[in-house]
Design brief:
The complex is a heterodimer of chains A (97) and B (418).
Chain A: H1 2-16, H2 28-31, H3 53-65, H4 73-77, H5 82-93
Chain B: H1 2-16, E1 28-32, H2 36-48, E2 53-57, E3 62-64, H3 69-73, E4 83-85, H4 87-91, E5 95-97, E6 101-105, E7 110-113, E8 118-120, E9 123-126, E10 130-132, H5 156-167, E11 173-178, H6 188-203, E12 208-213, H7 221-231, E13 236-239, E14 247-251, E15 256-259, E16 263-265, E17 268-271, E18 275-277, H8 279-284, E19 293-294, E20 308-310, E21 315-316, H9 324-342, E22 352-361, E23 364-375, E24 378-381, E25 387-388, H10 397-416
Parallel strand pairs in B: 1-2, 1-9, 2-5, 9-20, 11-12, 11-17, 12-13, 19-21
Antiparallel strand pairs in B: 3-4, 6-7, 7-8, 10-18, 14-15, 15-16, 22-23, 23-24, 23-25
Chain lengths: 97, 418
C-alpha cells in the first residue's frame, strides 16, 4: 500500500512539477485583499510589498499594543504572535513592488 | 489527524487513477463560479503554478459586484462601476468557459456544461455563491421579485430597486425584510437600510424605512443603531423577530408584507429572502440538509465528496462570515493547498483574515474584522483577535473607515479581476 502510494505520488509530482518552493506563510495571502502589490491611485491603504521586514514587524507590534492607532489593523495584529508576524513581514519584504 | 488521513486517502485514490493526467500531462482544475471566490481561485492557481490547466466556468461575461451595490441604491455610485470582465483572467492564462455548469459527476470527475461540452478535472473548485429559497416566504417567487426586488444578487435587481425608490413619492414607506442566519453578507441589510435612509433624508425627507427582521440580533448592531440615531433620527424602525419582525408571506400585487404579528403595506418593498448554496452544489452532492456545504478547514475540500473544494458564501466556514473578503481569502488559501495536493504534498495549516466595512453614509464607515484558523475540524476565531469599530469614534475614525472601505474595494477587485 505504501509503495503504491509513493509511486502514485511520484508520477503526479513529475507531471505537475514541484509545488512552489516558498509558500506564503500562514495568514500572508489574506493581507493582499486590502494591501495591493504596488501603489494604487484610488487607495489610501499602503502597499507592503518590498517594505523592510523590521518596519512591518514594528508596525504590527504597535498596532497590537494600541501604541499606533488603526482601523482594523489592531484587531488583526492580535491574531498573530511574534514568530508568525516575523514570517509574514519577511515574506512581504521579499515580494516585488 | 482526521484531516490528514482524509487528504492521504484521496491523494492515494488520485495517484492510482489513470484519469488524473490529461494527454498533455497537465493537471486540470475546473473552477465553477466567477465571483470573488472562484475568480480569485482560478487566477491564484495559475499564478502559483503556471503549468496547471485551469478552466473557469461562468455564464455571465460581466460580473456585477455586491459589495458597494448598496451605494448604487443611494445614488453614490453607478451600476457600471460595479461591473468587471474576465479579460484579466484570460490574460493570466485561465481558460474561461462562458456557460453554466449543469451537472457534476464526482465519481467520474467531470463537469457537464450547458453548451454540451464536458470537462474532466483532477480537482474541482466550486464557488457558486447563493440561490434563494423561493417559497420560504409564501408568495415570494421569481415573479414577485420583479415587484419586490431582493437586490441580493447585484445587477438588474439593484437597478430596479433604485428606480422604485426614485419613483416613490416623498412620505412613502420603504419596507425591508432581512432573513435569519446564515445568509450572504451579514451586515448588508443594515448597511442598505442606512444608505437608503441617507438618500431619503436628502431627496424624500418625509419618508421612513421599516426593517422587518427574522432575528433578534445582527452584525455590528450597536454601531448601526447608534449611527441611525445620530444620522437619521426617527427614520429607521428596526423590528426584531421577538416583536413580530419575521415576514411569513407577501402579496406582490399590493406590496404587502405579512408578519406573525400583522401586515405592512409598502410604497417600496425590498425582500431579502432566506438563502442556500448555489443550486449546482446540491446537484453535485456537496450541500447538506441545511442547503450549505460542509468542508474541512485546511483546503476546504468537501466532507461529502472527495476532490471537490467549496469556497465563499456557499460553504460552511465555521466562524468566518459570508463576505467577499472571506471568499477571496479562502480562494488564495485553497489555491496554494491545491498546488501542494496536486504535487502529492500536504497543504500547510492556514490562517485567514476577514475584514468587512459597512457605510452608514457617504463619509461614515464602520468595520468588523476577524482572524481564523483550523480548530476541531472547523475554522475558528483566533481568541483575542478581531472585533468591531469602537462605539466612540475619535479623530475622524468614521470618515477614515469610509475611505478605507473604498480603498479596499479598489484593491480587491484589482486582485480578483484586474
Amino acid at each position: 500500500m505504501h509503495r503504491a502510494l509513493l509511486s502514485g505520488l511520484a508520477s503526479i509530482v513529475l507531471l505537475v512539477g514541484p509545488a512552489t518552493a516558498a509558500d506564503a506563510p500562514p495568514g500572508a495571502s489574506s493581507c493582499t485583499g486590502c494591501h495591493a502589490p504596488k501603489k494604487v491611485a484610488d487607495s489610501v491603504i499602503p502597499h507592503i510589498n518590498g517594505r523592510k521586514a523590521e518596519d512591518i514587524v514594528t508596525f504590527m507590534r504597535e498596532y497590537r499594543s494600541g501604541a499606533w492607532p488603526s482601523s482594523v489593523m489592531g484587531r488583526i495584529a492580535k491574531g498573530f504572535d511574534d514568530q508568525q508576524t516575523q514570517a509574514i513581514a519577511a515574506w512581504f519584504a521579499a515580494q516585488p513592488e | 489527524m482526521a484531516t490528514r488521513r482524509h487528504f492521504l486517502k484521496f491523494t492515494v485514490a488520485a495517484g492510482l487513477a489513470p484519469a488524473v493526467v490529461s494527454a498533455q500531462g497537465k493537471a486540470r482544475v475546473v473552477v465553477i463560479g466567477g465571483g470573488f471566490g472562484g475568480a480569485t481561485a482560478a487566477r491564484t492557481l495559475k499564478a502559483l503554478q503556471p503549468t496547471l490547466d485551469v478552466t473557469l466556468v461562468e455564464p455571465n461575461p460581466i460580473y456585477t459586484s455586491c459589495p458597494f451595490s448598496n451605494a448604487v441604491l443611494a445614488n453614490l455610485r453607478e451600476i457600471d462601476q460595479q461591473q468587471f470582465r474576465y479579460d484579466g483572467l484570460k490574460g493570466a492564462g485561465v481558460t474561461v468557459a462562458q456557460t453554466s455548469a449543469t451537472a457534476v459527476d464526482a465519481e467520474a470527475k467531470t463537469v457537464a456544461l450547458a453548451d454540451g461540452n464536458r470537462l474532466s478535472y483532477d480537482r474541482l473548485v466550486m464557488s457558486p455563491g447563493i440561490d434563494f429559497n423561493w417559497g420560504a416566504i409564501a408568495g415570494y417567487d421569481e415573479a414577485a421579485a420583479q415587484k419586490m426586488p431582493h437586490a441580493w444578487k447585484a445587477g438588474a435587481q439593484t437597478v430596479l430597486l433604485r428606480r422604485q425608490l426614485q419613483a416613490m413619492e416623498d412620505g412613502g414607506l420603504v419596507v425591508m425584510s432581512a432573513p435569519a442566519n446564515p445568509f450572504r453578507c451579514p451586515p448588508g441589510p443594515y448597511e442598505r437600510a442606512s444608505l437608503i435612509a441617507y438618500w431619503l433624508k436628502i431627496w424624500k425627507p418625509k419618508s421612513k424605512l421599516l426593517l422587518l427582521d427574522a432575528k433578534d440580533a445582527f452584525s455590528k448592531q450597536r454601531l448601526f443603531q447608534n449611527g441611525w440615531a445620530e444620522l437619521y433620527p426617527g427614520m429607521i424602525e428596526w423590528v426584531p423577530l421577538s416583536q413580530g419582525g419575521k415576514v411569513t408571506s407577501v402579496d406582490p400585487a399590493t406590496l404587502t408584507l405579512t408578519t406573525e404579528f400583522g401586515s405592512h403595506k409598502a410604497a417600496v418593498a425590498n425582500v431579502i429572502p432566506p438563502q442556500k448554496a448555489g443550486a449546482i452544489a446540491a446537484q453535485a452532492g456537496v450541500a447538506d440538509r441545511t442547503g450549505w456545504c460542509p468542508v474541512e478547514p485546511v483546503a476546504f475540500e468537501s466532507t461529502l465528496r472527495p476532490n471537490i473544494h467549496v469556497l465563499g458564501d456557499a460553504a460552511i466556514m465555521g466562524g468566518m462570515p459570508k463576505s467577499a473578503f472571506a471568499a477571496n481569502a479562502q480562494a488564495k488559501v485553497c489555491a496554494a493547498a491545491l498546488v501542494r495536493l496536486l504535487a502529492g504534498e500536504k497543504p500547510q495549516e492556514p490562517i485567514l483574515i476577514n475584514t468587512c466595512y459597512s457605510l452608514l453614509a457617504a463619509d461614515y464607515g464602520i468595520s468588523i474584522a476577524g482572524v481564523y484558523r483550523p480548530d476541531k475540524g472547523q475554522l475558528a476565531d483566533v481568541p483575542g483577535a478581531g472585533g468591531v469599530s469602537p462605539l466612540v469614534a475619535v479623530g475622524g475614525l468614521r470618515g477614515q473607515e469610509a475611505l478605507y472601505a473604498s480603498s479596499w474595494f479598489h484593491t480587491i477587485v484589482a486582485e480578483t479581476f484586474g
